[in-house]
Write a sequence for this structure.
């Protein structure tokens, strides 16, 4: 995973994260969790969730205008993330 070097002017991207969860035996150590646990060719229950990446401008907050009196705003949270944090997240996801 790499940080976006130049964000698109409209801050619209199609990047997503795939988060997978599965059940492992009690007492399984982190280092014992291998990619094979998440293989769809096994009989394991695997739950998946795609998380859409949202770029947020820190310079100007985005204000969404209602359409037909209805707000289509989605709750977003801007969290500053360092490269070290991203590396740690990726290491955990790739175990």
């Amino acid at each position: 995973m790499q940080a976006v070097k130049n964000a698109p002017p409209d801050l619209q991207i199609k990047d997503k994260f795939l988060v997978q969860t599965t059940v492992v035996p009690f007492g399984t150590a982190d280092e014992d969790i291998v990619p094979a646990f998440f293989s769809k060719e096994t009989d394991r229950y695997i739950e998946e969730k795609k998380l859409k990446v949202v770029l947020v401008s820190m310079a100007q907050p985005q204000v969404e205008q209602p359409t037909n009196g209805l707000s289509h705003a989605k709750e977003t949270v801007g969290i500053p993330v360092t490269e070290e944090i991203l590396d740690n997240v990726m290491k955990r996801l790739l175990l």
Q: What stands out?
A: The two ends are 15 Å apart (CA to CA).
